Amino acid sequence: MSAWSVLAATVVETVHSLILPHGVSEEGPVVPGWRSLEIITKFGHWVGDKIIMMNIDGGLWTELVVTTVNCTYLMPDGMSFQEAAAISVNYAAAYMMIYDYANLRPNQSILIHMAAGGVGIAATQLCKLVHDVTIFGTASPSKHETIKENGVAYPIDYTTLDYAEEVRKISPKGVDIVLDPLGGADDSKGFGLLKSLGKLVLYGSANQVTAPKRSSLAAAKVWWHKFNIDALQLINSNKAVCGFHLGRTDPDHVAEVIRKLISLYKEGKIKPKVDSVWSFEQVGDAMKHMQEHKNIGKIILVPEVKTTDATTGN
Amino acid sequence: MSAWSVLAATVVETVHSLILPHGVSEEGPVVPGWRSLEIITKFGHWVGDKIIMMNIDGGLWTELVVTTVNCTYLMPDGMSFQEAAAISVNYAAAYMMIYDYANLRPNQSILIHMAAGGVGIAATQLCKLVHDVTIFGTASPSKHETIKENGVAYPIDYTTLDYAEEVRKISPKGVDIVLDPLGGADDSKGFGLLKSLGKLVLYGSANQVTAPKRSSLAAAKVWWHKFNIDALQLINSNKAVCGFHLGRTDPDHVAEVIRKLISLYKEGKIKPKVDSVWSFEQVGDAMKHMQEHKNIGKIILVPEVKTTDATTGN
After folding, report:
1. Is 50 exceeded by the pLDDT of residue A313?
2. Contact between B243 and A235 using a beta-carbon 8 Å cutoff
3. Using an 8 Å Cβ cutoff, are B36 and B9 in contact?
4. Which residues of B touch A229 (CB under 8 A)?
5. Mean pLDDT, all residues of chain B
6. To the nearest whole percent, how much of chain B has pLDDT over 70?
7. Is B186 part of the contact surface with chain A (CB cutoff 8 Å)?
8. What is the rounded distance in angstroms from the CA atom of residue A13 to the CA atom of residue A280?
9. Distances (CA, A) of A171 to A65, A111, A149, B14
10. Angle between helices A118-127 and A81-95 (to 10 degrees)
C-alpha cells in the first residue's frame, strides 16, 4: 500500500510510559507521542472511519500528523477513542514482553511491578488469558482492590513491605517471570526471585524518577546499583534477562501484535482501563499525576477537552 | 513414589557435553555422568524392563548406581540403548533452550553452533518441528552433508569463513535465535547477530578448550572477551540473553521434558544420531575424539564393549 496522509479531525494521545516517566529518555528536542486516534475526514471511501495510528518513532503529541497507511488500524465497533488510545502502546508492550519474551505458560507465576499502571493493567489481563497463572502485583494499598479485580491474585504493598519476601511467603521457589520497569537495585532483586529457567524482563528505569521530577540522587543510586551480568553468571544461574524497548521493535511485528490485540478486544478478552483525560495544555499536570503514582490505568491526552479525572469525576 | 535401587545389568553412558568439553567445570573430585540405561534384573514386575535413568546431579559414569524411581523412564519399543543414551541430556537441553527460552515460532530463524555435535543434531531436529524455520549451522566442511540431511538449510564452514557475515548474506537483519556453546568473543558476535526481540542462549564456554586439553591461553582469551551486559544496554538493544545449565534445572521439569521427548521419538519426529561407542576404559580417547571435533552426533560410553566407531565401522 502506498503512503498517504491523514488530516486529523480528532487526535487523542496518551501520556506514555517509556520517555521521561520510566527514565529512559530520548535525545531531544523531540515531539513525543507514539499513537493517536482519528476520524478520517478526507480520502474517499475511508471518510468517517475511526482509526488507531501508531508510530513507534514518536512525533504524535501534535494536532496534525502525516503517516503511512501501514501505521493505521481500523477501530472496531464499540471501542472508544479513549480505549483505543489506551490499547496500543501499553498492550503491545505487555503482549510482546509476556508472549514473545517470557513465553508464559499454564501453571506459571509472574510478578508485575506497578500493576495499577498502564502496562501493569494490560499485562495482568494478558496473563489471565493463560490457564492457571499466579499473578503477584505491586501497587500502593489504595489501588489493591482495583488490581485484584483486574486479576492480580496477590497485591503487594511495596511502600511498606519487601516484595521479594512477600512473594516467597506464597511461593518459596520464587516466580517464573518478573516484569520490571524499575531499574537499579530492583533488577537484581527481581533476578534473585526467579525460578530456574525464569525470565527477568527489563523495560525501564522508573527508580530514576522521584516525583515531581527527575532527581540526580535517585539517578546516581540507580547507576550505582545498575544491573550487570556476565555469561558465566547467567549460565550458572540458569536464568534469562530480556531487555524490551518498543521503539526498537520491528514495525511489521508491532502491526501483527496490534491486530491480535484488536481481535482480543473484540472477543471481550481485554478491556483497557482509562484513569483520566487531560488536554494538551495540561500535559505537565498529566505527567505529574503519573509521576506521583496517582493513576490507576492509562492517562489520556486530547487536544481540546478539559480535564475529566476518572478517579474523582471532576 | 518411594526411593528404590537399581542393580545395573547394562549401563550405557555418553560422553556428555557440559562438564569439561564445554569448559564449564564441576568442582572435583566428582564421578561424572548424567544418564544411564539399564535392564532391570530385580524388583518384581519391573524385571526385564529397559529404562532410561537420568540424574542431573551426575555420578553415573560407574557400573553400579542407586537412584529413585522418579529419575527413570521406560524405554519405548524399538529404541536401542545407544539411542536412549543419546536422547536424554542432549535432547532435553536442546528442547528447553529452544522451547522454554527461545520460544521458537513459525517463520523464525536460528543459528546453531556445532550443528554436528550432540546438542546441535538434537536442536536441528527439534527446530524442524516448527513450520518454516530457517536453520543456519556451523560445522567443519566434512560434516556439512550430514547436518544438511539433518535439517540445516545453510551449513557454514566456521574454520575458514566469518559465520556472522555468512548469515547476513542470506538474512541481512540477522536471526531470531543463536544457540551458543562457545563463550568469549563469540557471545558478543552472536548478540550482534540478533534481530529485535532476539534471544542469545548461552550454554557453555567451548572456546576455552583447544584440543587435546584445556589451554591457559584459550581460557585467558575467553576471560578477556567475556560477554558482559547491563540493564540499559539490554533495553536499548531490545534483545535477550539466556543462560542455560541443565544441572540447575528443576527435576520435575526435566522429567516432563524427557517424557515429551520419548513421545516425539515414538512418533518418529526425532531420531538420535550416534557417532561412536567406547568402553569405560577408553573414556580418555573418547573425550579426545570429541575435543578434536571428530564426532558427528553423540559419543557413547559402555562398561564392557570394545570400541566400535560408527564412522569407520571398526
Report:
1. no
2. yes
3. no
4. 228-230, 241
5. 81
6. 75
7. no
8. 9
9. 49, 11, 21, 36
10. 70
- pLDDT-based confidence at residue B18 (cuts at 50, 70, 90): very low
Of the listed ranges A38-47, A125-134, A273-282, B175-184, the least confidently predicted one is A38-47
Average pLDDT over every residue of B210-226: 70
**pLDDT above 90 for A279:** no
For residue B32, how many other CB atoms are within 10 A of its CB? 18
- Quote the pTM value: 0.85
More confident residue, A270 or B25: A270
Rounded Cα distance, A239 and B248, in Å: 10
Residue B117: CB atoms within 10 A of its CB come to 28
Q: Is A213 on the interface with B (CB under 8 A)?
A: no
pLDDT at B24: 39
Mind telling me how many Å the CA of A81 is from chain B's nearest CA? Answer: 29
More confident residue, B63 or A239: A239
For residue B242, what is the nearest residue in chain A, using CA coordinates? Answer: A240
**Nearest CA among B39, B64, B59 for reference residue B51:** B39
If residue B206 lies in a helix (H) or strand (E), which one and from where to where? Answer: none
Angstrom distance (rounded) from CA A171 to CA A162: 14
Q: Do B249 and A24 touch (CB under 8 A)?
A: no
Instruction: Burial-class residue B46 by CB neighbours within 10 Å (0-12, 13-18, 19+).
Output: middle
Give the cell for residue A113: 511491578
Q: Among A95, A176, A187, A234, pick the best mutation site for testing chain B contact (most B Cβ within 10 A).
A: A234
Cβ-contact A297, A147 below 8 angstroms: no
Identify the H or E element spanning B122.
Answer: helix B118-127
Question: Which residues of chain A lie closer than 8 angstroms to B253, CB-CB?
Answer: 196-197
Using the beta-carbon criterion (under 8 Å), do B243 and A253 form an inter-chain contact? no
SS3 B90: helix
What ipTM score was computed for the predicted complex, to two decimals? 0.84
